[in-house]
Amino acid sequence: MAAVSLRKSNARLPPEVNRVLYVRNLPFNISSEEMYDIFGKYGAIRQIRLGNAKDTRGTAFVVYEDIYDAKNAVDHLSGFNVANRYLIVLYYQPTKMSKKSDVKKKEEEITRLQEKYGLGSKTPSSSSSA
Q1: Is 30 helix (H, G, I), strand (E, B) or coil?
Q2: pLDDT at position 59, please?
């Protein structure tokens, strides 16, 4: 009902609100059906992607058809207990996700340039002070 009243009043949503949710701290053995049961209560779901690689287990992306349904799910499911684990439900923010990989790329670029120009990460020697 809250979502219906939000739509009627045309309330402005914060800029981070998104139809795509990023869910962390999921039990590793949760099934897609269980995910649809939990998240489907808050609106029509377009897609759910469960992480199955070693570094993505326990995470998922949930895509809702409507932005207000996604907001409602975040409001109600953040901290929700599933199999003795408390869910962390966030709006997916691609800029924050890509920053982690950007840092690694920049470090690799710096290392490559240091090697190319014969610079090391050594401290300046005392011979330069004359």
Answers
A1: coil
A2: 95
pLDDT of residue 117: 83
Q: In terms of Cα–Cα distance, which of 72, 28, 70, 75 is closest to 50?
A: 28
Residue 49: CB atoms within 10 A of its CB come to 15
Three-state secondary structure call for residue 59 = coil
Strands 81-82 vs 20-24: parallel, antiparallel or unpaired: unpaired
Please check whether residue 18 is in contact with residue 88, taking contact to mean a CB–CB distance below 8 angstroms.
Answer: no
> CA 65, CA 83: separation in Å to the nearest integer?
27
When comparing pLDDT for 3 and 44, which is higher? Answer: 44
d(CA 71, CA 105): 33
pTM score: 0.68
